[in-house]
Amino acid sequence: MRAFLDSVKQSFDWVSFPKFAVTDVIEILLIAFLIYHLINWIQRTRAWYLVKGLAMLLIVWFVATIFEFSAILWIFRNAISVGIIAIFIIFQPELRRALEQLGQNRFVGFFGTSKNAGERFSDETKEEIIAAVFSMASVNTGALIVIEEKVSLEEYEKTGIALDSLVTSALLINIFEHNTPLHDGAVIVRGNRAVAATCILPVSENMRLSKELGTRHRAGVGVSEVSDSLTIIVSEETGKVALAQRGQLIRDIDENLLRSKLTESQNKSAGARRLFRKDWNSHERQA
Fold first, then answer.
1. d(CA 285, CA 287)
2. Inter-residue contact 260 to 222 (CB < 8 Å)
3. Could you tell me the pTM of the whole model?
4. Which CATH number fits domain 123-283: 3.30.70.100, 3.40.1700.10, 3.40.630.30, 1.10.1420.10?
5. CA–CA distance, 73 with 86 (Å, rounded to integer)
6. Half-sphere exposure of 93 (CA within 13 A, CB side)
7. Which residues are CB-contacts of 155 (< 8 A; sequence separation ≥ 6)?
8. DSSP assigned state of 193
9. Is 199 helix (H, G, I), strand (E, B) or coil?
10. I want to staple 132 with a disulfide (CB 3.0 to 4.6 A). Which of 30, 108, 156, 169 is the partner?
11. pLDDT tens readout for residues 117-173
12. Rg, C-alpha atoms of the chain
């Protein structure tokens, strides 16, 4: 029996457990805190799309390594240095803004809570937007309303005039009224507030869009290509309402579909979203 116990003991002699000090525990907690909030920050910027793209590339690299695809591995080895430089160039605005916030000790802004949590805007705000949109559509008043979701639109907010006003139908109608100082450009809605007006948005270069579409529709599609926002466009020429999301455009929508998409954008519970969810493709009328 003694010999058996000695052999068991010798079998586990190679197992060793590190000794933890109080400083080690604090260090682990700090690293976990930083990683968690870094992921939250990435989700609030366009860098989240980059992370998903890099994940796909890692899967391709892993498969190429297993099957020894020499040509693909050669491309990866020669492109990695250029790719790292390209990342810093493409996401220079986001990195600059993050460093500015840290330099100004705006830790709350940098380590803000994720926008995934809770309802983004109230039912009252949703109904006010719907009322304003179709009121403007009835009199052919052009409008461009961008509703922010997870990805921050602060970059485009800074191009406009700050409002920080509670969203009401009267406010939106007054902003887009012809020949008023704020009617040109987009209104950005964050939560229950219109944060800025006359905002300049990136114009889509999608060649599949109809040539009859103007700058307002192309800007609506453009901002949806670089963020997860929901953009509502009212045509000044036809009075018809369109939606842009994920780089796709739905034209000539009715009040029910707009309410459905706004309910999804509210980030309510999954059950509530399923109640109003409609198949995007079945309603899509791509130009």
1. 6
2. no
3. 0.62
4. 3.40.1700.10
5. 19
6. 10
7. 93, 94, 97
8. E
9. strand
10. 169
11. 567 899 999 999 999 999 999 999 999 999 998 888 888 998 999 999 999 999 999
12. 25
